[in-house]
Amino acid sequence: MKMKMNVSHAKVCKEPKENITNFHYEIFASCEESGRNESQQLANFANWKDFNCVVQEDSSTEGSILTFSVENKKRIHRRLKLFLLLDWRTAGTERLSFISPDDHLVHHYSSNRSSLVDYQVDNSNGMVRRSLYPLTARGISHWKQTLKTGSIPYQPLLKGPALTVASFDLLFSPLQKIQGHVIGAEAASREDLRKFHKHLKNRLAFHLKK
Description:
alpha+beta
């Protein structure tokens, strides 16, 4: 299972649009059926083991909202672990990534930019557990084991380039659809970063109320 992304941020899955801050992401899933645990890298609009997965990105100058929707196509209860590996095009040197003890978000800082990653699931009834961590080369080297066990190496503070992993452990009722979101914001200052993050969360809340 080969990933296109790497922790150097030198190569990403897609070219960023001009003046738009984008996620660069890859999707993985893990599912246990009949006593066997299987994992797979998913393309968008993928249908794997009768799970239909769709991912859409809404980008603006403040950041991006990555919305995923997973539907259980079978008439039985099932469990799926979904992993989104997120690369952020943060420039600069002296990079530092950490999990904030206040809001449990992943923050990435460099010499000239700051970014953060947030997440949520719309239907909490179908969610067993969620987690958000920064990830370096050490975590990438254990990625196959991560997919097998469903747990991510805990690295709360990292120096140097790092990805972010959003993990969702989802329990589905028959024919149930679960939707969630990953929010990413980037700015030149921490104050602007807080404003952009709040703006993206408000925009998402307004969309969900429609």
